[in-house]
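Project standup — Tuesday

K.O.: blocked on the structure for the chain from last sprint. Re-posting the sequence here as requested.
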Amino acid sequence: MILQQQIPLHALKVGKSGVVTGLLAEGIRRRRLLDLGFVAGAVIKCERKSPLGDPTAYRVRGAVIALRSEEARTIIVREIGREGIGNGAETARLPTGCPAKKGCKKQ
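H.V.: unblocked you, prediction finished:
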C-alpha cells in the first residue's frame, strides 16, 4: 500500500482529485469553508485554473467553487488516484452508461 502525501489544496493539479484531511483556517474563514462543503472526507476535484492562475475552480459535492490561492492553502488534502476508488474516500458511483436518474435499467 502506498501512502500518499498530504498537500495544500492549491498544489493539486488540474484534473486530479483529493480527499480533505484538515483545515488550517480559523474563525469565520473556517466556517465559510465548512459551509461550502470542504469537510473532512469530502472528495475535491481541481477543475480549472484561471488564465493568470488565481482563482482556481474546484468541484466539491457536485458544486463548482472558485477559491483564491490564499484560501486554498488552508485546506489540506490527500491526493487520490484510481487506487483511491473503493476505499470509502469517494462517493458512490453509478454503473458505466447509467444516467443519473432513478429507474436506471441495465441493458
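K.O.: great, moving the ticket to review. Residues 83-102 have pLDDT under 50 and may be disordered. The CA atoms of residues 25 and 71 lie 8 Å apart.
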